[in-house]
């Protein structure tokens, strides 16, 4: 399911117009991005937690040449699924 299909599904199931649903969905996406960018964590019950994890600097290897390279430390996005989502995937 892509974003437009999600908007149509939510509009049908709630009786709200597509444009209103899309506005709310865009606001949710913006909120998640802003929270993660600020280093916070956003938890949605039955869905999961959105956040960021700090990755330490490390030494990697170029597979083509075998040369060692330094990989810089960085923050990476992280999603931890809730139990309800895990159970839904297993069913």
UniProtKB/TrEMBL annotation:
GO terms for molecular function: DNA binding; structural constituent of chromatin. It holds the Pfam family Bac_DNA_binding. GO terms for biological process: chromosome condensation. InterPro entries: Hist_DNA-bd, IHF-like_DNA-bd_dom_sf. Keywords: DNA condensation, DNA-binding. Belongs to the bacterial histone-like protein family. PANTHER family: DNA-BINDING PROTEIN HU, DNA-BINDING PROTEIN HU-BETA. This is HU family DNA-binding protein. It comes from Leeia aquatica.
